[in-house]
């Protein structure tokens, strides 16, 4: 499973494929018992994947189960938004997630363009994370004060 991260985060369709593979019961059980740190990559794939998948709700249950035994800013972000509905906490976790992505060898792949380098996954992650917060906030509140 670890070696597959090289492929999944460097392939055009890899983020969808990692969800399909790691979300199978046998893989998810192995991740939960032997390699909970891989939840970071599955969580990231769910966040940056444009199409929400039916498996996402089941994955949130896994995050909730593992909340006490495994701590990671990316999984904690999802717990803040979808389990605890702690939107201030989610904002704080987003900043931590940015650091994690920049320093992670699989997620922080830099792309050189002209005179500068960028981390495309970071931008995509932050954009979708903000959207997750906004959508969930709007879903649970009847009235939103924009002032």
UniProtKB/TrEMBL annotation:
GO cellular component: a single term: eukaryotic translation initiation factor 3 complex
PCI domain segment(s): 7-147
Presence of the UniProt keyword Protein biosynthesis in the record: yes
Keyword list, A-Z: Cytoplasm, Initiation factor, Protein biosynthesis
Molecular function GO terms recorded: translation initiation factor activity
Keyword Protein biosynthesis: yes
Domain of life of the organism encoding this protein: Eukaryota
InterPro entries: eIF3e, PCI_dom
Name of protein: Eukaryotic translation initiation factor 3 subunit E-like
């Amino acid at each position: 499973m670890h070696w597959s991260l090289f492929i999944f985060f460097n392939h055009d369709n890899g983020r969808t494929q990692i969800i399909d593979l790691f979300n199978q019961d046998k893989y998810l059980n192995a991740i939960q018992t032997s390699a909970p740190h891989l939840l970071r990559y599955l969580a990231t794939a769910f966040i940056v994947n444009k199409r929400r998948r039916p498996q996402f709700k089941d994955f949130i249950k896994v995050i909730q189960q593992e909340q006490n035994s495994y701590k990671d800013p990316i999984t904690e972000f999802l717990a803040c938004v979808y389990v605890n509905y702690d939107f201030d906490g989610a904002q704080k976790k987003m900043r931590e997630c940015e650091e994690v992505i920049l320093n992670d060898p699989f997620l922080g792949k830099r792309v050189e363009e002209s005179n500068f380098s960028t981390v495309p996954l970071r931008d995509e992650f932050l954009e979708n994370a903000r959207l997750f917060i906004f959508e969930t906030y709007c879903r649970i509140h009847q009235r939103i004060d924009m002032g």
